[in-house]
Structure formats: structure tokens, C-alpha cells
Amino acid sequence: MVKWIAVFLLLLAGGAHADTLRLVVPEGMRPVVGEMIPVTLRGEYTSVIALETLTFPGSDDYDWVQLARDQWRDEEIDGRTVRVFERRLAVFPRRAGALTIGPVTHRLTVVGADNLRTPLEVVASSVTFPVPPVASLATEGTPLAARNVTIADELSSAPGNLRDGETLVRRVTLKAEGTLPHLVPPRPAMREPWLISFAAPEQREMQLTPAGPVTTVTWEWHLRPKTGEPGVLPAVTLPWFDTVARQMRSAEIPAIPFGYASFRDNRRGIDRLPAGQARAGLLAVAAGLAAGLACAFAGLSRRRRDDMRRRLRRLSPFDPTRHRLKRAVRGGDLTAIRRAAEHYLSRRRKLGRPVSGRETAQLDATLYGRAGNAPEVGPEMAAAAVFRHG
């Protein structure tokens, strides 16, 4: 009798040890701040479960969201039927440094001998990731990390051919795959001295998919020029980190011309001035230039002064961002080099100079590539790639 009791207790203990829970995460992952980490809680149980409860722990170090309902199913493992539990989540690091997820406890009520119900706690051990910072031009915060980012720009009418007094409605929809709504950067400013701008309340929505959350943000502006004088509303660049290619990219709200059609028609009438009046106008311009470019520059509108400064910067042989990049190379810090390279490339974009988008590919692979697969790039090689492609 004692022998059978011992065998029964041994089997009971063996069944308890067979109940396991673990955190399943991608191998070799080096997530950046804000990047989605797919996490699966997987339990394998041989006990008969009557009740269960599991609460994923919150933390100041990450955000998280559950992607789907819990799944329970039977599987054949090592020749025996096991009750499998799975919960799929997405975790998003809030800051750089060491990120620890877990431990996680699954509290069960199991049915034992004589239908007695007893509590059982199964614990999944914690996992830790190194989270590097993302080097970017965005000093106000961390750039968006996503699998893909697209921008749709809708205009209520042709912005450069508005009717007198007409208000343009501009609606920009940003769609980011693999991120949460509050991780998308705030609405960009759309202001100019010659523009009246009113921003409608923004809309942020999230849809859960098996691959992770998909966030859609809609921004809307009502825009009207203060005068009929035409202008250009400049482009807005939104930097983001591509978690698939492991490199920085830029999404752009394009520049648009702005103005009333009547002003352009009036200018066409001026172009048809009689020859005598045209010569008098040229003489007046020449006299103004002779009186001094400084006075003429001071009398320009703010927008025209900004345009002139931009043209002068483009013609200037001195590039402060290139100097900062070379100084970062001498320091040898790859993160500092990446940040200086983004400043250098951003200046080239603003000046209309060619930028291929591949300048920092090797450097991004070294900084953010998966462990074991990232190439080693030295400071001089990184800078050479930026200058060669840029």
C-alpha cells in the first residue's frame, strides 16, 4: 500500500513539473526605442485546469498591447497530449538601456485526486534586451519606429489657383505599421507670415492585426493667404526608423504652391506694359540696386528674405554640418556620427541637392542590425559613404 502511495505522489509531482510557461521572443533582436517586440506567452500543461488567470505586468520601461484573444488547444508533444496556452503581445521600449520583460505568473486552479481543486502558480522567467538609442535629427524626442510609414495628402482644390477669399482644406493621413498611436510624433506646424492657418482636432486610431498594431493619424488644416501674393508652403519631413531595413528613413508632406488665381492674372497684365513704361521700370530697378543692396534686402518681405538666404547658403562654400560630421568622425562615436550625418543630409535636402537615401545604410546596419549579422563599419568608412552618396 505504501508503495502505491509513493508511486502516486511521484506521478503527481512529475505532472506538476511538466506544467511550464515561458516568454517566446525573436532571437538576436536588438530593438530600438519605440520598436515593436513580438512576445508570445506559451504555457504547456498536463494538469487538468479548472480556472486560470494571467495578468501581464506593466512597467515604466515599456508600453504593451495584446494582439489577439488567448488561445487554448491540445497538441501532441513527446508522445503525449498537452494542453497549450498562448497569448500574443507587442511590447514597445520607452527608453534606451537594458529592458527586462517579466517574470510572468499564470495562476491556475487544477483538479487533483478525488476531484480536489488546488491552486498552482506557473512562472515564466524574465527576458532582457539591450535597447540602443536612435541617432536622429529629432532633438525634441525619439523618431517613430515602424515597419512601414505612408503619407496621403488630400487638398480640397488647386492650392495655387484659389478663388478670391477661398479657404483651402488640407488633410494629411499618416499610416504607421507596427506602432501605437501615442508614439506617432505630434502634428507638424504649418505656419507662414503670409498665411492664416486653423488646425482641426487630430484623429488617432489603432487597428490590431496579427502582425501588430496599425496606427492611422489624420491632421487637417484650413488655410487661406492673407494677401493675393503667391507663395510656397514648404515641405515637412518626418524622420522614422525602418525596423525591417534597420535604417533611418524620411516621410514627407510635400511642398505646395499657394495663392489666388486673380493675382496671377493681374501679374500677366503687368507683363504686357508698353515698351516705354517697361524701360522706365528697368531704370528704376537699376537705380535701386545702385542705391544699395542692403536697403533693398531690408525692404523685402520675410518670406523673400528667407528665400534669398536659402539661395545664398546654397552658393556658400562653407557647410557647417559637414564640419560637424568630420569632427564626429575624429571622436570615433558611431552614434554621434549618425546624428551629424542626418544634419548634413537634411541640409542637402533643404537646399535641393541630391540625396540618394542610401548614405547611412551600412552605418545603420552596424548600429541597429540584428546581433551577429551586422557589418562592422569604422568612423572613416561611415563618413566616406555619406560624402560619396551625398
TrEMBL record:
* InterPro entries (alphabetical): BatD
User: Any stretches that span the bilayer, and where are they?
Assistant: 280-301
Q: Does the keyword Signal apply?
A: yes
Residue spans making up a coiled coil are: none
Q: Which UniProt keywords apply?
A: Membrane, Signal, Transmembrane, Transmembrane helix
Keyword presence, Transferase = no
Where does the secretion signal sit in this chain? 1-18
Q: What is this protein called?
A: Oxygen tolerance
Question: Which source organism?
Answer: Ancylobacter novellus (strain ATCC 8093 / DSM 506 / JCM 20403 / CCM 1077 / IAM 12100 / NBRC 12443 / NCIMB 10456)
